[in-house]
Design brief:
- It is built from eight helices and no strands.
- The chain is an all-alpha fold.
- Helix content is 74%, strand content 0%.
């Protein structure tokens, strides 16, 4: 195992790795922000935040996912596109929880690997769950029903995402401190691998009817969004929840 890890750790611990990453991520972030404020300004505020965070965590990969699945310019809304929007939605909250968890556990308390993993998972799950639970409450779903729906739809994705992300992060960075390059670069690698690992879970849940995925970006227009969701006769009616 060490024969495989050692060269990977050497690459990830290099300042060049982080420098190249920033050189790719920052233009990607600028592109997605510009597109969201010009061509796709109609998207819901929550999804705008989701896409910005997804690109912030995963750079060009996040931008590619947005470009192919999250814009009104997409040619169709196939299940694979809905699955990517769904996993990005989950990823934005879980990634934020993971970053906050690592900063608290390592930066404030110098916690060991086990404590860091527990704190990180707890915050990632809480924020990821809240991103699914909150919108259901806003849509008028009863709290207990919203809780059950969110638990069933989001838990498998969050579990897979966080098990992969936290394991990779601890495997690469170990007990690295915040002043070391590998502390930050391992977060980039682990978060992105968590996103990739959770995608097939979301696709399976959508195909099984457990999730619907986030709303088609071609349908979120706009001033008629609320009416479309509420009126079963409206062509943009979108029953159920993500």
């Amino acid at each position: 195992m060490s024969d495989i890890l050692t060269p990977i750790q050497a690459i990830v611990s290099s300042p060049w790795f982080l420098g190249i990453w920033l050189a790719l991520m920052l233009p990607s972030l600028a592109i997605v922000i510009r597109d969201l404020t010009t061509k796709n300004a109609h998207l819901m505020s929550l999804m705008k935040v989701v896409w910005v965070l997804t690109v912030l965590y995963s750079g060009p990969l996040g931008l590619l996912i947005y470009w192919r699945t999250g814009r009104k310019e997409i040619p169709d809304d196939a299940p694979w596109r809905r699955a990517f929007r769904s996993v990005a939605h989950c990823y934005s909250g879980c990634g934020l929880g993971e970053i906050i968890g690592v900063l608290i556990a390592v930066g404030l308390f110098s916690a060991g690997n086990i404590q860091t993993a527990l704190v990180t998972f707890a915050l990632a799950y809480t924020i990821g769950f809240a991103l699914g639970f909150g919108p259901l409450l806003q849509d008028g779903v009863a709290p207990w029903q919203a809780f059950k729906d969110t638990f069933r739809a989001e838990t498998p994705s969050i579990m897979v995402m966080e098990i992969v992300a936290i394991s990779v992060d601890l495997l690469l960075a170990g007990n690295a401190g915040m002043g070391e390059v590998i502390f930050w670069s391992s977060l980039v690698v682990s978060l992105t691998l968590g996103l990739v690992a959770a995608y097939p879970v979301n696709l399976t849940l959508i195909k099984a009817g457990v999730k619907e995925g986030m709303m088609d970006p071609r349908m979120t227009d706009h001033s008629h969004h609320k009416e479309a969701e509420a009126d079963p006769m409206h062509p943009r009616y979108h029953p159920g929840h993500a």
